[in-house]
Amino acid sequence: MDQVTAIYVQADLGRRRRQRLPSLDRWSGLIFQCTDDELSELTGTAKHQGIAVRVAVAGPMGERDAYSWLESRDNPLVLVLDGVQDPRNFGACLRTADAAGVDLVVTGRSRNVGVTPVVSKVAAGAAELQPLATVANLARFLAGLQEQSFQVVGLAGEAETSVYGAALSVPLAIVVGAEGEGLRRLTRERCSLLVSVPLLGTVESLNLSVAAGVCLFEARRQIGQLAGPAALR
What pTM did the predictor assign? Predict the structure, then answer.
């Protein structure tokens, strides 16, 4: 379980902004006052909201634990990220994955950005809640998923099959490639199906976190697990 180890509050936050903060009484011994500049350095961004929380979190699962975790889930849905380098994209993917009820997000050990303060901020809490695994070899991991009867679907802009025309079923792994480069060759070869998101405007591609969200929620729609409206924040 994640544990709060320190809470940093901007000293000159202002009465109105301070009143909007939730009660911090239970962590009174862990609260530290800091300047705006110190908070920017701690969070890695100048666009903080006057407060930051440091938590001790468990690291991502390894390959063996990831397989065991998925075996314990009913009809699991997995998001695999093949080389996402932008922390904002990674954070957005984690937030989207949590919203879509993804059982596990999987990244490569050497080609994906880790969980940084920027990732945590963009993820809006999902970085600490969404199950995450880091594996040494994505292609090998996908082969292992196929041995567990997973349908492995890769997202590729040039694919002739629309995600809306594909028959998606669980257990399912949706694989999204890196910014600009897309899926690597070995990763692509491990996909049993490639799909695209049809675009009706003039832009040639979607942001990868948006494309991942489209595919994840289409998968949920097809397997009948969308249960009504939710607030957008």
Answer: 0.76
Cα 190 from chain centroid?
A: 21
Task: Kindly report, residue by residue over 31-53, the tens digit of the pLDDT.
Answer: 888 888 888 888 777 777 788 87
**Would you list the domain boundaries of the chain?**
3-56, 63-222
The terminus-to-terminus CA distance of the chain in angstroms comes to 26
Domain 63-222 adopts which CATH fold?
Answer: Alpha/beta knot (3.40.1280)
DSSP-H helix ranges across 52-203 = 63-71, 87-99, 117-123, 126-129, 138-147, 185-189
- Distance (Å, whole) CA 119 – CA 90: 6
Is 36 strand, coil or helix?
helix
Scanning the structure block, which residue is given the tokens 């397997």?
Answer: 223
Question: What are phi and psi for residue 102, nearest 5 degrees?
Answer: -70, 135
DSSP three-state, residue 153: strand
Amino acid at 82: D
Burial pattern 97-113, b for ≥16 Cβ within 10 A else e, equals bbbbebbbbbbbeeebb
Q: Tens digits of per-residue pLDDT, 95-130?
A: 999 999 999 999 998 878 878 778 877 888 777 778
